Inverse folding.
């Protein structure tokens, strides 16, 4: 029993190999897309919205203003004591 290899069998083998490698490529792309999707979700969880950032910034500025006022008050008191 002889197996005769004709052009159609060679073509089918080449197509099968090509489909195999294309499948591997798509599988890799799918895993990369999943990884990117996970990274985007992580950024969404960690990202502060503008509103929250503005509130935090406002609170920090208020505290800095209070510290500045206290330092100015202390400086004025020291100047008055030095003038005596």
């Amino acid at each position: 029993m002889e197996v005769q290899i004709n052009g159609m069998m060679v073509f089918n083998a080449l197509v099968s190999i090509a489909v195999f490698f294309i499948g591997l490529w798509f599988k890799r792309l799918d895993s990369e897309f999943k990884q990117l999707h996970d990274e985007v979700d992580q950024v969404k969880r960690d990202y502060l919205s503008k509103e929250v950032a503005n509130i935090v910034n406002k609170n920090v500025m208020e505290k800095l203003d209070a510290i500045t006022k206290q330092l100015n008050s202390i400086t004025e008191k020291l100047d008055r004591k030095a003038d005596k």
In short: The chain has two domains: 1-47, 48-84.
